[in-house]
Prior knowledge:
With 557 residues, the chain is of the alpha/beta class. The strands form four sheets. It has an eight-stranded parallel β-sheet, sandwiched between helices.
Amino acid sequence: MTHQQPDLVLTGGRIWTVNAAAPLAEAIAVTAGRITAVGSSAEISELAGPATEVRDLAGAFVMPGLIDVHTHHSVAGQEELFELRVPIGAHLDGIIEAVRAHAAKLPADAWVVGGPWMSDRFTDINSAAALARLDEAAGGRPVMLSDDSHHNRWVSSRALELAGVSAGDTGVVLDASGRPTGVLLEAAGIPVARAQRAVGGLTADQERAASRHGVSILSSFGITAFQDAGVSTATLGALHDLDAAGELDAWVVSSMLVNDEIFGHTVIGNDLVFDGERYRTPHHRPDFVKIFLDGVPPTRTGAFLEPYLPDDLHGDHFHGSTLLDPSELLDWLRRTSAAGLSAKIHCTGDASVHAVLNAVEVLRGEGFDDARYQVAHGQFVHPDDVPRFAQLGVAADISPFIWVPGPIVEAIREVLPRDRADRMQPNRSLLDAGAIVAGGSDWPVSPSPNAWDGIHGLVTREDPSGAYAGTLWPEEAITLEEAIAAFTISGAEAMGLAHETGSLEVGKSADFVVLDRDPFAHPARELAQTRVNETWFTGRRVFARSTPTDEEGESRA
Length: 557
């Protein structure tokens, strides 16, 4: 225990340290942004000097700052600040009216950009008649609306025209008469995204504002470290500049795009991933690459070992496919690992998960022991592959919060046999096999980055909103202690930050939250009601709820 006079002493709390050796404490001391002592109130109080700020927590519950291993913080900030927000769960009429109201405020040739439309609304919008309604509501303007997965878009006829997209192009959905419906799957939307960015892209100041706003929303939910799962050079630059100016209020690990199936960024691959080091700052770590290995199940772009349900377009034996073949995947992972970079690989189907594990097995055999690998999403894992995560040192980035009934689950049930669709997110099995299971929101795919929604679902396997009844594979529920670890120390380990944050231990960054309740003292079905009253990052308070009943954290996201 240090005898140096701390800057801050907090006493009289119920402090959940997420340190297995000493899980509970009453007090902590902070010096120069680091934790310098953890213990009883009596012990820690003695360390205070004349200049020390001493605060009695009056029994409040304190825990490490939450960690989100999968966000798109700048995308979310951009959507919040600059784009149309379609009401969550809106049917076709609601989407059309939102577009009409937004378009009325714009110049005649301006783009209408926004979202999300829900995955289970695909049938509603997927017709030439719906496209005609979209065109009319927008007054002929180009429109680009993302779905809740952010993998697919619904665009207007004018947007198709400006982007040079036509019937017959891969991923352009047609109706029974061969007419485009405006729905673009995966990479088919990239020409539209680039056409919009060419005339309406963000300035450098706007990029910084988007990133800053995204981080501020994350702070309001108690998140003090996160991994951005797909960055552009503009986002890398914004994070560098914010930290250089002392305005970055979180640890950020960036994932640089090897391939781009959804964003439409112009600089990807070799030109991006081997140029990230110049954006490094004390709190920004460009340490990962991001690989899209498949798409998403609702549009049959996820890669599976067993086939999808039959349909007229794909037939009886369609499995989906990976976006890189095994040799390409292995080459990228080998070259980036040799450069000291780790990898986050997007996998939603069990075939893509299997391919990643096979590639990592080869690389571990070649001596690449230091690189970190994350299977991102990994909703579907073949039982034989579950133990391989721990054996090969592959972390499970579980995101978004779809381990409970909801719209994405409903959409998946339409394309997979029910017995397979309902075996999503084997979190209990992965933990029991020794894997690192790290929680992520995939915000803005999840409407909110509120980790307590995710924790609620991990423990109960029930929709915390109550909008969708029942449970999803309740045998895979985990304990509250395990769920908190998933959103703290396990996320830090998966991101390579466990030496900096993720638990309240001497020497680590003073990143912690003060909650409105002790979550262990309330029923599991009330976990989603937990609120963050204060967020502290490197010993600085970066968020405080103005009153105990203030819902700022919810409204800002």
